[in-house]
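1st attempt posting a full record on here, be nice pls
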Amino acid sequence: MTLVKWLISVVVILSLGGLPSSVNQHHALAFWHVKHTPTSIFINYYRFADDFKSLLSSLPDPTLYLLALSGEADAQFVWALRLLKNGKGQSALPFWRASAAQQNADKRRKLSALLLKLERWDDLTALSQLQLLPESDAAEQLKLQYSAAPASIDQRFASHEGFLLSFAQQQAQSHCEFNVLMMTDHRQGLAQLNIFKTRYQIEPQPRAGSFCFSKPIYLGDSINCQQHPEHAARCDWRPLVNNKVWPTGFDFIVMMTRSGLGNVSGGIMHLNSASHYGLFLHELMHFSGFEDEYVLPATKQAWLCQQKGFVAPNLFIANGVAPPIGWQQSDSCQTAIKAYKPSENWSIMQYQQIPLSQQYQQLWLKQIANPAEQPIRFGDYFTQLEEKISF
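the predicted structure (as tokens):
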């Protein structure tokens, strides 16, 4: 401390001690003293508590930190918010836990918003368990994160965030070839489905009007999906077949799970919420009957590679018949009977990161326009489930 600062400190302390009735005249000087001499906070804070509490957020880090360490609840809370704003969630934890109960709902909303921004889900859960998490977007996002029941989600929040809590009022678009219901059971899935939908609308494939997508529908804990990241994503649809009023006019379902490999079966696409857009487009082509051009699973090769001729718009099995002129051997069938694909180049059906080529776009358009081609819809699959199970 310089000599000048030391002399000012002495004057301030003597002034505050000798003129207790002049509080309003000296609090500014006290505040200046604290900002320049952090350790003097313990001299000045309790003399001007009301003034200091209103100015806590403007105190420099060393001063605020010292006051927080002393156990002053308001200082602890403000220090916690400052740490969170700087991305230091773990350091902030003991300070807000010690002080949150003394703060009003608006201040706790600020806390929960910062915890949400850092995705401190365990911290938000702890705040909720302490019954200190007020009604807020963070409280609703916490429910979504842990797949709470759709009935527990605030309807206004869902509307604002752009997702649905039921199938009610869903209407198919008559100008589209196919209508698709988009669903998920968790928070990140809602965000990713909206991203996919927006991107598709910017550049629809194979042309505008081919597919129309619903707003994402939140299913929460009403559906059970396996979560093994190395296995194909799967959900148990049986409890929902009869227990849900399914909207008419919809052809396919896109279901986004937390984990699992992307696949299409029975008119239902399963993706996980870490999936990229190329995979989404790849699986969308499966709805139209396209086949994979990478090595197929052995169980699938056992029956598919024994077929003859076209088994998909992009796959021809040369079982005793010559492939179309210009088609090239595909990796799909690793058997004595070979499969052929339209192009010698890699395609989106072999590597999902590759953009859709004009050649495959034209094949896709032709497939959709062919009235003889009837893809499997989720309604067909649900009918089969109804026949197999007894409710």
